[in-house]
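Pinned message: reference record for Protein S100-A3
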Amino acid sequence: MTAFYVRMARPLEQAVAAIVCTFQEYSGRCGDKHKLCQAELKELLQKELPTWTPTELRECDYNKFMSVLDANQDCEVDFVEYMRSLACLCTYCHEYFKGCAPDPPCSQ
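Predicted structure (tokens):
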């Protein structure tokens, strides 16, 4: 067991580990283990962000989403493209909640 897991990880450390582990869990099932194909991306969105992914999304909606994330147009989403999408999501959430009072305050 590494030192990372022996001591109690801080929330940001846990978040980074979750981001990396989630990508690795879904990537490579269909091919390149360092990239998400459209089916893997769709499954990740549906299972890991169920309340953020509308249930009424059609296949063409996933096609559009994939084309937006796939900056280099190789029909797969690599880790950098995945991280850009999460950064945009975090930025959106930050902007959305900027005016809200932190009630209750964030737990630590």
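Pinned by admin. Summary line: Residues 10-88 form a domain with the Recoverin; domain 1 fold (CATH 1.10.238.10).
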